[in-house]
Amino acid sequence: MGNRIPSIALEVRTEWLETFCRSRQVRMRVADQSPHPLGRTMADELSIQLLLVEDDHLLRLDAEELLTENGFEVTSFASAEEAIAELDANAAQFSGVITDIRLGKGGTGWQVGQHARQCVSSIPIVYVTADSAAEWTSHGVPNSVLIQKPFVPAQLIAAISGLLNDASMANAV
């Protein structure tokens, strides 16, 4: 996760983020002047907020770090119930949802995805699972992506970025 993106990739990513946020009408924010993980300041950057749901503490920390290093803001929870409560309170602030399927006791990632889509009908959903892939066609929401564990970090970034791009293109039409 310590790889740095070349400056040309940063320029392309920043341009893509600006286009995406304009098409989705995502708010602009002025962040603090803390150092950006890629060596830039975060002032005046666009914000893409993701909801992450993972019950395994270490996997959740790894995913948060990966997503943050790739320019996303992350709000994370360990349970479906916490995530659903956050969606009920603030669904419009999220540009996408990444959720594990089996979340221990309580609700499932399937329920998180379904609830997110009830709140925001076009929100991108990425499901992550070690053993529930066969249930995706019956429990997953349409136009979602499923990634099987274990996976390489680039798969997660590609999945959420692809869905966000598709959503921005659909909103632009």
TrEMBL record:
<dbReference type="InterPro" id="IPR050595">
    <property type="entry name" value="Bact_response_regulator"/>
</dbReference>
<feature type="modified residue" description="4-aspartylphosphate">
    <location>
        <position position="100"/>
    </location>
</feature>
<dbReference type="GO" id="GO:0000160">
    <property type="term" value="P:phosphorelay signal transduction system"/>
</dbReference>
<dbReference type="InterPro" id="IPR001789">
    <property type="entry name" value="Sig_transdc_resp-reg_receiver"/>
</dbReference>
<keyword id="KW-0597">Phosphoprotein</keyword>
<protein>
    <submittedName>
        <fullName>Response regulator</fullName>
    </submittedName>
</protein>
<dbReference type="InterPro" id="IPR011006">
    <property type="entry name" value="CheY-like_superfamily"/>
</dbReference>
<feature type="domain" description="Response regulatory">
    <location>
        <begin position="49"/>
        <end position="164"/>
    </location>
</feature>
<dbReference type="Pfam" id="PF00072">
    <property type="entry name" value="Response_reg"/>
</dbReference>
